[in-house]
Design brief:
The chain has about 475 residues and is of the alpha/beta class. Helices cover about 40% and strands about 15% of the residues. It contains 19 helices and 15 strands. A 6-stranded mixed sheet has the order 3-4-14-9-10-13, sandwiched between helices. Strand 5, helix 6 and strand 6 form a beta-alpha-beta unit. Helix 3 packs across helix 4, helix 4 crosses helix 5 and helix 16 crosses helix 18.
């Protein structure tokens, strides 16, 4: 499998190269040169398999010759052996047609673990025979940071610098990052939003005089390997609800479009996905883009669902690439215009093409709280604010009655205890994995959202890209 940039001018890479690079040199995102497909028989054969075995089969076409099939299966077993549920991503039934796909049974209690536990192993595997030190730079709206830090803490040949918006993540989310004191972990709170943090990361990759001194890589969903790992749970859930004979709809709470784009990939591979519902909060750029063609940047409004408080959705570029007929030069011109003007009008023909699979919904705070109460009162489930946004969108969706609807439950409710308690009157019990979290020491820097300050901090602490033999 070869990987090309959405902007058309970066070198074509294999899976190993795309994984280590993260972001393409031309500012684009890597995508497979062609979408692999599975037959109905191959999809049906996934029924009854373990999650690790399912993952190895789904990812094998994307990994290609970079990792052998048996080694890939072993890496999957190692990654998912740390999850607290034997099914890894279990389904929970809410009523006759609605289901939750629980993605929060990993070490940091959020869906990011499903991909990042594996990505950490991929990094270690690919670096083993290289005289290279990897410097990971990332931005987090809450959960990516803790999941990435857990995945690479203490690993040789890797330093990670994680930017988060100061005061705009929950206290549990912050402490999960800042209480990891391994010497290769560097947390930075910036005076700004997640969009500011994400823009700084992209500018570091594009700043050649800086990036040339280090081997930079990414753990955000701009890294293809992370998205690839998320494709698996769509197949895992769907075959348990009757695929390939049964169509399935998925409702995905999303801000950066990565989690729902993984569902798009599953559909391109042949999974019978009836609809992908893009569930946003009041920071609704994705809803506006899909429903009205208005992909323009507004002001970020802080909410009780901070991981969705985003106005620039990086992974949307991957969908736009396909909607542009995979014409990298054309998309590059489009994205340059967007980056200059902060606005993009999506033509009706492209919106119509997207609408064959995607729907969208904007869920406000009241609807979010109502969904949390409904889940508790009607199905005895406490759910976090992000999952509640997905559930509210799922229950409002216009879908045939015979289509099961799966809402992706992206975080454990204990990570957002105050919001859950306000909506339901109950406080989600803290899992044993977080025992003592509030007693641990924290370590992080607070810096302005300025490229020079961030680069100086990284340069002072990161190792150069060549490691002596």
């Amino acid at each position: 499998m070869r990987y090309i940039s959405t902007r058309g001018s970066a070198p074509t890479l294999d899976f190993e190269g795309a994984t280590l690079a993260g972001l393409a040199a031309d500012g684009g995102l890597y995508v497979p040169e062609a979408w692999p497909t599975l037959s109905r028989g191959e999809i049906g054969a996934l029924a009854g398999l373990s999650y690790a075995e399912t993952a190895a089969r789904i990812m094998a076409p994307f990994v290609g010759d970079a990792i052998g099939r048996e080694e890939l299966r072993a890496l999957c077993e190692q990654a998912y052996g740390r999850f607290s549920h034997a099914a890894v991503t279990p389904l929970v039934q809410l009523d006759h047609r609605h289901w939750l796909l629980e993605l929060f049974h990993g070490p940091t209690l959020a869906f990011k673990d499903v991909a990042l536990q594996l990505l950490g192993l991929f990094f270690e595997r690919f670096l083993a025979d290289r005289h290279t030190h990897l410097t990971i730079v990332g931005a987090t709206s809450g959960d990516t940071g803790s999941a990435a830090i857990d995945a690479v803490a203490g690993r040789e040949k890797i330093d990670i610098f994680m930017l988060h918006p100061a005061g705009r993540v929950s206290e549990v989310q912050r402490r999960q990052m800042t209480s990891v004191l391994a010497p290769n972990i560097h947390n930075i709170a910036i005076d700004g939003s997640f969009d500011d943090a994400q823009a700084l990361v992209k500018r570091m990759f594009a700043h050649q005089s800086f990036a040339g001194r280090f081997s930079l890589s990414a753990v955000n969903s701009i890294n293809w390997a992370r998205l690839m790992a998320q494709v698996v749970y769509y197949f895992y859930a769907a075959v348990r609800l009757g695929a390939p004979s049964q169509e399935i709809a998925f409702s995905v709470p999303t801000g950066n479009f990565g989690d729902v784009f993984a569902g798009y990939v599953a559909a391109k591979m042949g999974l019978p996905v009836k609809r992908l519902i893009v569930a946003t909060n009041v920071n609704d750029i994705l809803h506006r883009a899909l429903s009205a063609g208005d992909y323009s940047v507004g002001t970020v409004t802080p909410t009780a669902a901070p991981s969705m408080d985003i106005q620039v959705s990086s992974n949307f570029e991957r969908l736009l690439f396909d909607l542009h007929g995979r014409d990298g030069a054309a998309l590059s011109q489009t994205m340059r215009g967007f980056e200059a003007s902060r606005t993009l009008a999506i033509p009706a023909a492209m919106r119509g093409e997207a609408a064959t699979l995607f729907a969208s919904a904007r869920i406000d705070a009241d609807a979010m709280s109502q969904a949390m109460r409904w889940a508790h009162e009607r199905a005895a489930q406490l759910i976090d604010p992000h999952s509640a946004i997905g559930l509210a969108a799922a229950r409002a969706a216009d879908l045939p009655a015979e289509v099961p609807v799966v809402t992706l439950a992206t975080a454990h409710p204990a990570k957002f205890g105050d919001a859950v308690e306000r909506a339901t009157g109950l406080r989600a019990p803290m899992p044993s994995r977080l025992a003592g979290l509030f007693d641990r020491s924290e370590r992080y820097a607070t810096l302005p959202a300025e490229l020079e300050a961030i680069e100086a901090y990284v340069a002072e602490r990161a190792k150069p890209n060549a490691v002596p033999a």
